[in-house]
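Checklist before submission:
- one chain only
- standard amino acids only
- sequence pasted in full

Submission:
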Amino acid sequence: MQPELKPVRIDRGGPDFVQPRDIAVESAGHKVLRNTYLLLAVTLIPTVIGAAIGTNIDVSFLRASPILSFFAIIGIFYGWIFAIEKNRDSGVGVALLLGFTLFMGLLLGPLFQRVLGFSNGIELVMLAAGGTAAVFFAMATIATTTRRDLSSLGNFLVVGAIVIMLAVVANVFFASPMMHLVLLGAFVLFSSLLILWQVNAVVRGGATNYVSVTLSLYVAIYNLFSSLLQLLGIFGGERD
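Returned file contents:
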């Protein structure tokens, strides 16, 4: 059972006595969270660089064989995550994480090319970025201030991740526009809940490695931003 973040009062020490263990857990949790936020901010730099490069290169070869491209990207994605987790306790893990974020930025290139093709493309990108920041701030604030232990949310997220992944793979073959919209909405909800759960786990001492936590939050933020941007492009994109 995970330790509670809130002070625990006992009769022997008086009404304001706080168990040292809980103080240590709170202090360690906030230290991990500070390191996570710092590294998370750093990961945005290679992401922006990768996105700038990806936006200005020809990626038509990916559309030549979309199914093969999808599985190749998925293989690289999970292989890279495995390598980061394996080296999460060393500087190699940080370097791999930064390389991963550069790669993920490159993958944003085709999306940016489509969205920036709209007359209001820059506005849509700014709206998606602002929406992502607002959701992250809201979820992180709730996670750090709530007295509830949200660890049980983890089981729901595991099931949700499996269902979403299976649906994504299925839609690679079916190419259903309606399913694509549903998946975008699912990614927004899932990513928001993942941020809530992950930050809460850190402040309660259930997650102690800031590299792993940063990776989890980065993927959530990335999926949240890209999903919001696609939805804005679909419903709010304007042609000249």
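Reviewer check: The CA atoms of residues 158 and 214 lie 18 Å apart.
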